[in-house]
Design goal:
Blueprint: H1 3-24, H2 30-41, H3 50-78, H4 84-103
Length: about 110
């Protein structure tokens, strides 16, 4: 499975769970959901309830997916290996192409 497919599968799974969760909490319209998001972002000394967790979860998912994307890119960059065999093969192919072009009397570059 490709990375973007994993990402889209996670987003689809999250959205399905989130919609079911909102239906259980009886959030009926987008304006009420938007106002709930604004209220959830205001600092409060009390512990988060289920409704607060539901309103904050999209933000947490976006942050979590961003952290995952950055960590995945960093890991890929750090573990990238040189392909010496492939470089040698390309050099051989270039030399063969130059010889073939000389045979056919085609002048190209150096």
């Amino acid at each position: 499975m490709l990375r973007y497919q994993k990402f889209l599968a996670l987003v689809a799974l999250y959205l399905a769970c989130y919609v079911m969760w909102l239906r259980q909490l009886s959030v009926s319209s987008f304006p009420s959901l938007l106002s709930a998001w604004v209220d959830a972002l205001k600092p409060s000394p009390q512990l988060l309830g289920a409704a607060d967790a539901a309103t904050l979860s999209p933000f947490l998912v976006v942050v979590g997916l961003g952290v995952y994307a950055v960590a995945d890119i960093m890991y890929t960059v750090l573990t990238f290996n040189d392909c010496k065999d492939a470089a040698e093969e390309i050099d051989r192919q270039v030399l063969e192409a130059r010889k073939e072009m000389k045979k056919r009397k085609i002048k190209v570059g150096n």
